[in-house]
Every structure is written in structure tokens, then in C-alpha cells.
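pasting for ref. prot 1 ->
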Amino acid sequence: MLTVTLQQLTPELDGGYIIDKAFYNRHWSYVRSRNLIYEGSVTLLFKNIRLLQYDDFTINKSSVYYNVLYKTPKLINTLKM
């Protein structure tokens, strides 16, 4: 099962606001699976633009990642190791 997520980005990695999700079955061919996702993603985007136009639009907070994000260490931290 393949998932496509339309989300509003925030400074947090994977901590944005989820607008909508779509689920697709895998195909035996990578190219066919990719094309299915590309075409479905366009449909998902237009669906949500239409919902935005009619004020029937909801956004949910992502619960995928809730831990502290790791960042690139500073030079002093690297030299301590």
C-alpha cells in the first residue's frame, strides 16, 4: 500500500499540518506504480483546491513524528567525541 500525503509545511520535519491523504495499491511495475501515484496526486490536489474554494477545508496536526528532531552537530560537539 502506497500513501501520498498533502500537507502544509512547517519548520518541523514531518510535523506539518495534514490536509489530505490518498492510498494506492502497488503494481508489479515500478513505472506503473509511479505513474499511478503521479496521476492520483494531481486528483488529490485538485480535490482539495475545490474544497478550499467552497470553504469546506480542514487541516489536522500531524501525529507522525512527535520526538525532538536531531540537527547537525556543531563543530565543538563533534570534536568532543
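and prot 2 ->
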Amino acid sequence: MINFGIAAVLLITALAFYLFIEEKISVDATAILILVLLIVLGIVTPAEGVSGFSNPATITVLCMFQIFRGRSTSLTP
């Protein structure tokens, strides 16, 4: 039987896929939105939600976003 947590995670996952594919809002804003939704709905605790920011892989991805942003703005005429 599907409970609230399972249904919420499935809907949030579908929303994330849609927003990532359509890029209605930026990818980084979408990721933060999904994180906030999971915390607000009580699916993860705030400590669990922000614990990933201390992971070196997360910091690397953040740096790659910044490098790409700087590079793409310098190439436009």
C-alpha cells in the first residue's frame, strides 16, 4: 500500500524530471526547490537535507556551474 511519503517522493521525482528537462527555472534553483520540498514535507530532516553540501562532489558540481556560467557569458558578443 502506498503511504504519503512514497506518493510524495514519486510526485516530487516526477516534478524534478519535468523541471530539469523543460528548464522552466534554472537547474540549480530546481535542485534547491526539490530539497526544500523534501524538508518541508518532513520526508527528510533539515540535517539530512543539508548534509550533502559538505560532500566534495557537491562542491565540485557547484564549481562547474560557476565555471560554465563565466565561460558562457564571456563568449557572447
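Residues 4-75 form one domain.
The helical segments are 4-22, 27-40, 46-50, 56-75.
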